[in-house]
Write a structure and sequence with these properties.
It contains 2 helices and 4 strands. By secondary structure, it is α+β, with helices and mostly antiparallel strands.
Length: 165
């Protein structure tokens, strides 16, 4: 209960929380709070990426082989579209990041987005596991802090009673 890690790992050191003073416990709790906030922000960014990749994959699944010469609206920005014509419904140009685009066949592009969704999902699961471990540690720190505060209050009460006698 008062160990800082529920599962011992080679790169981690176990600390008996009951040996730390309130200031050290507070610092440790604040550090964990910051890490948990970072995990939450990372999860949000990964969720947005997953939605984007899923949307791209779904859009590609709507493509039909007979769409050659079909009129479409091509996005230039998030809110500006221009008219265009599909010249080759079997090949698409996809954004692979940092301003780079590649031409890929339709099935290859679908597969790429499926792999990206899967990768992002696995990363989210890893972060969630780490977040749960950090939350358990933070809860253990809170428990130890409460115990130490109660002990401190009892000692103060005893001192007040001794002074009053």
């Amino acid at each position: 209960m008062s160990a800082i890690s529920a599962t011992e790992k080679p790169q981690m050191q176990q600390i008996d929380l009951s040996t730390l003073n309130l200031q050290q416990l507070t610092q440790l709790k604040n550090q964990l709070d910051q890490e948990l906030t970072l995990f939450q922000e990372s999860l949000q960014a990964l969720k947005m990426a997953r939605v984007k990749y899923s949307g791209s994959k779904e859009a590609l699944e709507q493509f039909k082989p007979d769409w050659t010469e079909k009129q479409i609206l091509v996005p230039l920005t998030g809110s500006m579209y221009v008219p265009g014509t599909i010249k080759d419904a079997d090949n698409v140009i996809i954004d692979i990041g940092t301003g780079y685009y590649v031409q890929n066949d339709l099935e290859g592009a679908k597969d790429l987005f499926k792999r990206r969704v899967d990768f992002v999902q696995k990363q989210m699961e890893k972060i969630e596991v780490l977040g749960m471990e950090k939350s358990k540690i933070r809860d253990a720190i809170r428990e130890v802090m409460e115990i130490k505060l109660l002990q401190f209050e009892k000692e103060m009460q005893k001192q007040r009673e001794a002074i009053e006698k």
